[in-house]
Input
Amino acid sequence: MSTVMLYTFMIAASTGSIAETAKRLRYSKSTVLYHIREVEKACGSELVERDVRKFTLTRSGQKALEISEQLLQKADELKSLPTADSRGTSTPRLRDANVGPSKKLRQPRRTVSA
Output
């Protein structure tokens, strides 16, 4: 789950509509649904009750929304840190950080010569 997915979830919660969220963020509807499902997976519970045209947040969804807002606010604070340390060397800036376990890095294939 990434901060982008949390942001999508927040916008969807405020609009109550997958179509409106997709329009605002310029995503496809399937991307919006995917982001919401990924946030639900990470939380381990259903966050929205779906209807044909709209949806509403469950109790867990309301709590997840509050936490998402706090996390995104903290991420913004991290992004606003100075880009140079006291020695004058630059430090990397935080981009869209993934939240959750990191994926194992792929090792290059080794070829065996005869």
